[in-house]
Amino acid sequence: MKPAKFDYWAPASVDEALALLTRYGGEAKILAGGQSLVPLLNFRLSRPAALIDINRIPALAYIRAENIAEPGPAHGRPPTTEGVLTVRIGAMTRQRTIEFSPAIAERVPLLTEATRWVGHLPIRSRGTIGGSLAHADPSAEYPTVLTALGGSVVARGPKGERTIAGSELFQTYLTTSLAADEILTEVRLPAPPAGAGYAFEELARRHGDFALVGIAAVIARQGERCTMARLATSGAGPVPLRLRAAEEILERDGFGDAAIEAAGRRASELVNPDSDIHASADYRRHLAGVLTQRAIKRALTQATGG
Amino acid sequence: MDSGELAHVRLTVNGVPHEGRCPPRKLLVDFVREDLGLTGTHVGCEHGICGACTILVDGEAMRSCLMLAVQADGAQLTTVEGLARDGQLHPLQEAFREHHGLQCGFCTPGMLLTALDFLRTNPQPSEQEIREGISAVLCRCTGYHGIIKAVAAAAPVLKKS
After folding, report:
1. Residue of B nearest to A40 (CA)
2. Interface mutation target, options A1, A8, A54, chain B, most CBs of B under 10 Å
3. Whole-structure pTM over 0.90, yes or no?
4. Can you tell me the distance from the alpha carbon of B17 to that of B11, in angstroms, rounded to the nearest whole number?
5. Is residue A237 domain-shared with residue A206, that is, in the same domain?
6. Alpha-carbon gap, residue A48 to B132, rounded angstroms
7. Are A53 and A72 in contact (CB under 8 A)?
8. Residue A299 confidence (pLDDT)
9. Which structural domain range is residue B106 located in?
10. Are strands B16-22 and B7-13 parallel, antiparallel or unpaired?
């Protein structure tokens, strides 16, 4: 048998799963879709004492849209009493369900587009949004979407529930700020303002592979004026990066060719990629600039404001 | 359950109920091949890259090397053995034969079930969409052209049925 021995539990509730996590004191792994974890088990790179399989907790799979009062300004808008329209996605929602969800296509179409870059159809049939975020591969698509949209995740632990901003979640390669006794239960994505444009650009050696570099862009415009710009990377460092200095160029100078080019150049300067057998750091840096420009231009064609 | 205990797995494969006992770490593909004796599903890379072991789990294509057998307890599986009916090849298999969609046949079971699920979600695909759809499975013989032709030829037939 490929994986090393492990105890196996398939609890029916999050409470039960949390009790098991505590019982194994950091020696257990949560099994979500398993599309990253099972290969690690098969190679015996990961040898947990126990797997806590949360696939039999139906309460963790849902997609809901509602207004949530955000603690801080979302998408540059001031917080309001009625809150910001937010899509709440249960951690065990399959990537395939997200790909074909009309509610997500309507409110956070960036997520729909990014999902088509996640592995292949048979991977997306099984893979989950919560698993992808908790795995925190910096070349994956969902951490980039969470970063671009300024979203957050909900984690439950023995002491209760807390919300973690995307910017606080990713620490470094494959490492999050989730505690060993916590489970990621929900993903919250604030919907961009109506009329915003979006694009997810990515280059990989083969379709379905992890990105050499990916760029997510969300922009809003009033005529030639940029009212909001969100740019985030994948594959260009140990965590997904918000390209704030590149966003500022657009917010200051608008969407002329020179501004878009300058934003791309700044993106290249901001990223800190590694070299590996797939691509050199220099190439990835170059790619970050090119894809940033492409993503802005394509997002612009969809933005309807003004 | 403890790592040494045996999990009781009851599932339906190609409409036939099966059950067995296996350690929790046994992969679904190994359970299907070794415990159920259904060796039509091939096992290639065993880490989710090659796609040879792709089967339908509750109607959706999944890598059976990236699931534990115990996770499929209660599931409905379709494997390549379930495609032909009464000695008649499935229209997709017929198209693969007609258009030289296989040579050695190693990837074919995974290719067929991936294509079947793909055509269900996209019954009228463009050639580019077929290329993307089958990119989930690696083939080292055909150069893919015959497979693409086969999937394109099967699409209208499956849409009718």
Report:
1. B47
2. A8
3. yes
4. 6
5. yes
6. 35
7. no
8. 97
9. 91-160
10. antiparallel
**Residues B55 and B33 both lie in one domain:** yes
Q: What pLDDT, on the 0 to 100 scale, is given for residue A210?
A: 82
CB contacts < 8 Å between A and B, how many? Answer: 100
Residue of A nearest to B63 (CA): A122
The enclosing domain of A50 has a CATH number of 3.30.43.10
CATH number at residue B55: 3.10.20.30
CB A263 within 8 A of CB A293: yes
Q: Which of A15, A36, A56 is the last residue of a domain?
A: A56
Q: Does B119 touch chain A (CB under 8 A)?
A: no
Q: A207 and B2: CB-CB below 8 Å?
A: no
- A35–B57: do the CB atoms touch at under 8 Å? no
B40 with B78, same domain: the answer is yes
Looking at per-residue pLDDT, the higher value among A208 and A66 belongs to A66
Q: What is the CATH number of the domain that holds A169?
A: 3.30.465.10
Residue A75 has pLDDT above 60, yes or no: no
Ramachandran quadrant class, B47 (left: phi over 0; alpha: psi -120 to 50; beta: rest): alpha
B135 contacts in A (CB within 8 Å)?
120, 206-208
Domain co-membership, A183 together with A62: yes
Name the residue range of residue A117's domain: 58-190
Query: pLDDT averaged over chain A?
Result: 94
Say yes or no to pLDDT of A72 above 60. Answer: no
Query: Quick check: A120 and B23 CB within 8 A?
Result: no
Per-residue pLDDT band at B161 (split at 50, 70, 90)? confident
- Judged against a pLDDT cut of 60, whether residue B90 lies above it is answered with yes
